[in-house]
Design a protein that fits this description.
Length: 194
């Protein structure tokens, strides 16, 4: 197993720690630790991709494992935030759409791999991931800073800001999900026609 794949596995192994520190105690210090681990885990996504491309260590396993690690990381954090009510129950539908889309894309990728092709992440999907990570980070830390951003003289808390970003991430998820679906069917049609 090469270094990028080991880094991807590290990201997966960090996930239970994030959930533990989020759900173990309502203390701010625990949530700050969870936020730090979440940031480190998110950075491993950038690091493993950089090493894989620059050292010519891109593998089929890495192409399949990397997006699964990303989905596990964000899904576990989102579910924990719903449990903590950082994402209110009325907004849980946003989480369901994001996670549902991620499961569908993982299914498409698995089927594509059995057919001998890879569905790469689109730019919009990458933006979705970045916005989603920032939203999750804001929501993890939302009890720490109440009014951190002022728009038109009105204080905006991290929770509201995080929820707004999460809504944007959901919109990106829906649009990029449709792009994946289109790309998947075009490639399936090409394979069937061969």
């Amino acid at each position: 197993m090469n270094l990028p794949n080991k880094i991807t596995l590290l990201r997966i192994f960090l996930i239970p720690l994030i959930v533990f520190f989020l759900l173990y105690s309502p203390k701010l210090s625990m949530h700050i630790v969870a936020a730090i681990i979440f940031v480190l885990a998110s950075l491993t996504d950038v690091i493993d991709g950089y090493i894989a491309r620059n050292k010519n260590q891109v593998t089929t396993l890495g192409k399949l494992l990397d997006p699964i690690a990303d989905k596990l990381l964000t899904s576990s954090a989102l579910i924990s935030l719903v449990a903590l009510r950082r994402i209110p129950l009325w907004a849980a539908w946003i989480v369901v759409i994001i996670i549902g889309r991620d499961f569908c894309i993982s299914g498409f990728r698995t089927i594509a791999a059995t057919q001998g092709f890879i569905i790469s992440a689109s730019n919009l999907a990458k933006y979705k991931t970045i916005v989603e990570i920032v939203a999750i980070l804001c929501l993890i830390l939302s009890d720490w800073q109440k009014d951190f951003l002022y728009i038109a003289g009105r204080g905006l808390g991290m929770k509201e800001f995080g929820l707004g970003l999460l809504f944007i991430a959901m919109m990106f998820a829906v649009i990029s999900g449709a792009e994946y679906f289109k790309s998947f069917w075009e490639k399936i049609d090409q394979n069937i026609g061969m």
